[in-house]
Predict the structure.
Amino acid sequence: MLRKTVQEMPTHIWYICKLSTHGLFLQLAKEPNFPITLLLKNGSIFILLPKYSFVYLQKNLNIDNTKLHIEQIKEWFERDQVFDNKQIASFYRSIEPNTKESTVNWRIYSLVQMGVLTRVGRGKFVLGNKNSYTPDIPPKLKTLNNRLKRSYPFLDYCLWTSALFNEFMLHQPGKFFLIVEVEKDAMESIFFFMKENKYSVFLEPTKELLNRYIPEEKETWVVKSLVSEAPLQNISGIQLPTIEKLLVDLFCDTVVLDAQQGTERDRIFEEVFEKYTVNENKMLRYADRRRKKKEFNEYLNKISKFRQQI
């Protein structure tokens, strides 16, 4: 949303206010020092006139595609994994030296809408329109989800499985964990609820506990605490983790996700960044909630295929 306020207006009978970027002319009634607020949102312009009626004008904000230099920008950044808005501004100013920052911002917005660029963080982009990550939902998770909804309709929880990492791994683990993350105060209630329903389940297990008592079954249930403000997505009525949450959990949880550590972890990160759109800001916010932001940030700096040092 663009907001521009004109605090001082000349004292002529009629005033003309021009937004050159959008080719819009506004003729305004006489009023000394007339404060005008112009709001631009979703392709429409709203003019807020203090002490006067509300005015609404519709304006088509399409940008001339020839000004975007799409093919040139693809060639310019084809070797860069990640680049920022300053680099994009440098590209446009190499063609048009006097290109304004506001013009660059509108061109970036258009390129993102067209799928030429994908936003992967605050002011950071990659070429192309990568896929959004949508995890598969195993039948066992669907069944538990239905039971939890019936018995705990107001409970905040997230369901997933460590098998979600399989598509990014070279060596496939022989056993997996079905993970139930719930509000901290509800952990024990859900644990006993699952025990009553004949689930083989652990409550916040330690590495020693898992090594001693993990059952022979291929899949084992684990109840864990759901970190507040964790990035989740709702698919078919089930709260599932986003790709950003999975990566941060992979970095932080070396107990339940022990089979995915070491070189496999590096491979998972690189494969995810290559295949899907990943929002760095969202990852860092969640890592901060898990009190691992500094360590996670340092780890990202080591992954050259994802983070370009600028």
About this structure: Residues 101-114 form the longest helix (14 residues). Residues 139-301 form one domain. The chain is about 35% helix and 25% strand. Residues 69 and 92 are 8 Å apart (CA to CA).
